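User: Here's a structure from my thesis project, written as structure tokens. My advisor, Dr. K., wants to see whether a designed sequence matches the one we expressed. Can you design one independently, without my sequence as a hint?
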């Protein structure tokens, strides 16, 4: 059996065995390696020259020692160089193997670190949302002023804190509505003679751009903002309703969430901000309407006026009553101060047809409702009677908006168009046709009646009377669900199913 050196892979002249690894080496090679490294080249364990075991083999006859100028001397020098090359090559092979192992370990650590970073980023996002939720709760007392302990107990139990029977439209209520309408009509006529000085011109509105985008108002786990409204007196406060079953009040100037309103058991689909008080009203498919005090984030009233999902919500100009519609084919008129249902009227003309939306006229004596069979109906609030119908749409009515001039009504349905109606002549005088497949979710006139905003597949603004398209905003990544003008159209707000609130302006 031929012996072979583990370093040079050649037959050794003076073979020795390492007791540490059991390998055979050329004596001169292993002695040089030990003198430099002090370990066994195979397994890296400590090894000394004294530990080497010589192997007795047939002696090889060596030539006489050559002189420095002879060919044998040159060959000896070449042999020494070869030995050095073999040692260096062996060392490089070991280092290469070690580098491969370290690289593999580093790649594994990098992959693990990326996973940890992704998890921590997700946790940070969730923590920020939780912080935004907790901030407005600081300093809130468990029993806010003006709310009795029985009311809180009833709220916690999920029971309506008002009788379900109708209190009726008393002469006092009707007189209050009539007096308010007279005042509002006079004020509207005065406003109609002049355009507000601070109203943004249509040339400036064409230059509107996205000023801010706020995605953290509602939960990321259930994305989607479904409703929007702005405080008329303090237009820095914006109210949103989300698919996460919460409503949020946001201050656009401080960019802080003022309040998170929790209580609905299903998504919040309709919201109204009281124009004069820090009070908001929300509605949901859980059949309830809730009246909230923003400063305490507590519900003051919970109204159960309907037997089905609430689809429409509109506050009366008096600020004391709320109009609502539902898939139960009824519209209801309730007192938000006492929580009592004043009247509930069925749509007798369309049996089995759900009401999809509602909007009170600026004077508060008439209102419009939309139906799932494409009809827009105008009602007299005092008489509780249907006084006019506007056919022409196809598909369920999705949005209504009365102009502040008191003459125009804008309607939209699942037919990719906005129809404008003249309430004096009771006819459609203009149709804004969108692209095929365009969806419309919300309509809004500004306070002066100069501009009309449309939210749906994108957000569009039209100049009234000329009905000219001024601007299109298409930076939402999903369906826009709400749109509102700030005071004098100084800014425009929109919400979307992409969970963002976007603000547009100069």
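Assistant: Designed independently from the structure alone:
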């Amino acid at each position: 059996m031929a012996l072979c050196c583990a370093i040079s892979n050649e037959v050794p002249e003076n073979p020795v065995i390492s007791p540490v690894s059991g390998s055979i080496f050329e004596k001169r090679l292993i002695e040089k390696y030990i003198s430099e490294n002090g370990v066994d080249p195979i397994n890296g364990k400590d090894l000394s020259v004294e530990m080497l075991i010589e192997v007795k083999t047939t002696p090889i006859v060596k030539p006489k020692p050559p002189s420095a100028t002879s060919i044998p001397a040159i060959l000896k020098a070449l042999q020494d160089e070869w030995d050095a090359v073999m040692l260096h090559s062996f060392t490089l092979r070991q280092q290469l193997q070690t580098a491969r192992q370290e690289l593999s370990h580093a790649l594994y650590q990098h992959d693990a670190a990326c996973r940890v970073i992704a998890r921590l980023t997700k946790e940070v996002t969730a923590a920020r949302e939780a912080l935004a939720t907790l901030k407005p709760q600081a300093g809130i007392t468990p029993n806010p002023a003006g709310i009795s302990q029985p009311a809180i107990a009833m709220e916690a139990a999920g029971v309506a804190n008002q009788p379900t029977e109708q209190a009726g439209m008393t002469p006092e209520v009707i007189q209050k509505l009539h007096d308010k309408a007279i005042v509002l009509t006079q004020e509207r006529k005065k406003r109609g003679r002049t355009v507000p000085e601070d109203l943004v011109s249509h040339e400036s509105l064409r230059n509107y751009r996205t000023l801010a985008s706020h995605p953290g108002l509602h939960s990321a786990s259930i994305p989607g903002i479904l409703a929007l409204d702005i405080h008329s007196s303090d237009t820095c406060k914006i109210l949103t309703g989300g698919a996460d079953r919460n409503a949020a009040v946001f201050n656009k100037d401080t960019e802080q969430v003022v309040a998170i309103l929790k209580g609905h058991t299903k998504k919040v689909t309709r919201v109204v901000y009281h124009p004069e008080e820090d009070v908001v009203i929300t509605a949901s498919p859980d059949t309830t309407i809730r009246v909230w005090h923003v400063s305490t984030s507590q519900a003051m009233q919970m109204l159960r006026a309907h037997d089905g999902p609430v689809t429409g919500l509109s506050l009366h100009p008096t600020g004391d009553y709320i109009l609502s519609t539902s898939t139960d084919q009824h519209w209801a008129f309730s007192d938000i101060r006492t929580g009592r249902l004043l009247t509930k009227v069925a749509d007798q003309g369309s049996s089995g047809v759900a009401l999809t939306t509602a909007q009170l006229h600026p004077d508060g004596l008439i209102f419009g409702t939309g139906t799932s069979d494409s009809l827009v109906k105008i009602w007299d609030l005092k008489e509780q009677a249907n006084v006019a119908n506007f056919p022409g749409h196809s598909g369920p009515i999705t949005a209504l908006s009365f102009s502040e001039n008191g003459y125009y009504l804008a309607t939209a349905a699942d037919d990719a168009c906005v129809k404008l109606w003249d309430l004096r002549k009771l006819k459609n005088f203009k149709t804004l046709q969108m692209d095929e497949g365009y969806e419309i979710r919300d309509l809004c006139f500004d306070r002066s009646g100069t501009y009309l905003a449309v939210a749906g597949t994108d957000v569009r603004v039209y100049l009234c009377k000329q009905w000219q398209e001024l601007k299109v905003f298409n930076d939402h990544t999903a369906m826009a669900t709400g749109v509102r003008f700030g005071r004098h159209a100084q800014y425009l707000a929109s919400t979307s199913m992409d969970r963002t609130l976007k603000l547009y302006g100069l």
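When you compare it with your expressed construct, this may help: The helical segments are 27-37, 71-134, 149-157, 171-193, 202-205.
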